[in-house]
Amino acid sequence: MKTLYFITSNKGKLQEATKKLRPLGYAVVQKDLGYPELQTDSLEEVATWGITYIQDRFDEAFMLEDAGLFIDALEGFPGVYSKYVFFTIGLPGILRLLQEADNRKAVFRSVYAYYEPGKKPIIVTGECNGTISQKQQGKNGFGYDPIFIPNGEEKTFGEMTIDKKNKFSHRGRALEKLIAELNTLR
Ligand code: IMP
C-alpha cells in the first residue's frame, strides 16, 4: 500500500477518497492542516493556491481538493462559495431560492491537486450533472447530498451508499483521473 496524505478537515471527503483509493493500492491518511480559501470564482485557482500554501508547511507528497455545487437557475451559485452557503442558508435556503424555478439543473465539480516535493503539481477535475430535488431526501453523505439527484438516477446522493456515489460522482471521477496520472509518473 502506498500512503497518500489528504489535506482536509471534511470527514465525508475523507471517507469517499479512502473507499475509492484503497482497492487501487493507496492508503489515504488525513492531515487536518487548514489553508486560506482564495476569493476567486475558479475551483482550480483555490486548489492551486492551497498547494502553494501547504508545500511550505508539509514535507511529504499530498493531495487536496476543492469542490462545489453550481446551480443553473442561480447562475452557478453557490459554486466556490458552497461551503459558506451550506453553513449559512443551508439546504432549506437553496430549496427556497429554487421554489419558482422550472430549470433545476446543477453540476457538482471537484478539483484535486496533488503535489510531490520537487515535481510539478498535478491538477485533475471531475464533474457530475444532475438536478436539485424538490425536498431533502436521505441521510447519507454530507453537504448538498440530500438535494442532488445525479442524471440517470432517481435517488439523491443522500440516499446512496458511498460506493454507489463514488462510481459516478464528481469526486470519484476526479480521483480516477488522479490515479491514472500517478500511475504514469511511476
Ligand atoms: P470545499 O471543497 O471544502 O470548499 O467545500 C465545498 C462544499 O461543497 C462542502 O462543504 C460541501 O458543502 C459541498 N460539497 C462538496 N462536495 C460535495 C459532495 O460530494 N456532496 C455534497 N456536498 C458537497
Helix-strand layout with pairing:
Blueprint: E1 2-7, H1 11-21, E2 26-31, H2 43-55, E3 62-71, H3 82-88, H4 90-97, E4 105-115, E5 122-132, E6 148-150, H5 162-168, H6 170-185
Parallel strand pairs: 1-2, 1-3
Antiparallel strand pairs: 3-4, 4-5, 5-6
Bound molecules: inosinic acid.
Inosinic acid binds at residues 10, 66-69, 82-83, 86, 108, 141-145, 157, 169, 171.
Short descriptors:
single chain, 186 residues, alpha/beta, Maf protein, six-stranded mixed beta sheet, 6 helices, 6 strands, globular, binds inosinic acid
Provide the succession of SSEs: EHEHEHHEEEHH
Seen as an oligomer or otherwise, the chain set is single chain
Describe the sheet with the most strands: 6 strands, mixed
Total of helices: 6
Number of strands: 6
Radius of gyration: 16 Å
The ligands bound in this entry are: inosinic acid
Question: How does the overall form come out from the CA principal axes?
Answer: globular
CATH-scheme architecture: Alpha-Beta Complex
CATH topology: Maf protein
Strands in their spatial order, largest beta sheet: 2-1-3-4-5-6
CATH class annotation: Alpha Beta
Calculate the mean pLDDT score and round it: 95
Secondary structural class: alpha/beta
Could you say how many structural domains there are in total?
A: 1
Distance between the termini: 14 Å
How much β-strand is present in the residues? Answer: 25-35%
The level of helicity is 25-40%
Poorly predicted sequence stretches spanning 5 or more consecutive residues: none
